[in-house]
Amino acid sequence: MLPSGFEQTSLVKKDEGEGLVSLVSSPTPTQRCVDQVEVKVFFDPSQFPVLANRFHLHDQANFKRFSCFFDTQTLHLFRAGVILRIRLHRDAKDSLTLKLRNFDSRLIHPEFYTQSRFRLKINRTGAHQTQIAKVETRTSNGRLKRVVQGKKKIQQALNPVQKQLFRQYMGSVELLDQLTLYRMVEAEIWKWSDQTFPYRLTLERWFLPSQKPLLELSIKVAPPKAEVAQRRLHQWLERQGIMYDLSRYSKTAICLTTQNQTIS
């Protein structure tokens, strides 16, 4: 029996040796499983003074964090749709997140969807949607800072659920021994509410090595409200004459492939 929020689907599977095609039943998450949709737009970095003036960012409290991505030198995890990230915060607990992007649900046991730490979300930019599964832990004891400093192995910081998900999705945990700190990115974040818009806004400015900063504005909504909320966000920005960009859709992908142009 499948957990609530699942439906049985038939997947086409081809046996390369025999050249046969067969239908394989596999449970996949329906939208009822999705906890949240994050609607995003990007801006040209030259627009930051305009945004800062319009949204009074100089009067808003902001916070800083460092996003630290772990991978092999050939981006083995990223190629497989896996992100392993530590966030070091100035004003909050540090966090360690294992994230699967556009994942193959056949590689995740249905029992994971009942885990309290397991979350499903969708990132939405224009017509592009990325389904994400993640397990996140937070700590304030300095353990994750020691991982970033190289004083502790990343696999020692993963909790049992993260290790189990990694093993099930990647086939084993042996690859964890090959991971190093691949990239660290500083970011500034503003969160505020505007009387003329119904959703709380988040603006992030990522400072990429040897590149102009990335600027992203986002709102978080319940899945049934995502389409309407996205349309309202676009209309709200257009009424104010603020140009936005829907051609980009992942800060992480841009960050990790900045100096690896062969990664698709």
User: Between the first and last Cα atoms, what is the distance in angstroms?
Assistant: 38 Å
DSSP helix fraction = 10-25%
Could you list the spans in which at least 5 consecutive residues all have pLDDT below 50? 1-28, 260-264
Content of β-strand: 35-45%
Q: What's the total helix number?
A: 7
Question: How many strand units?
Answer: 11
Class based on secondary structure composition and strand pairing? alpha+beta
Question: What features would you describe in this structure?
Answer:
The protein has 264 residues and is an alpha+beta fold. The chain contains seven helices and eleven strands. It has helices at 48-54, 76-79, 143-148, 154-157, 160-170, 226-239, 251-256, and strands at 6-15, 20-29, 36-43, 62-71, 82-89, 94-101, 118-125, 128-139, 180-192, 201-207, 214-221. The strands form two sheets. Strands 3-7-8-6-5-4-9-10-11 form a nine-stranded mixed barrel. A two-stranded antiparallel sheet has the order 1-2. The protein is globular.
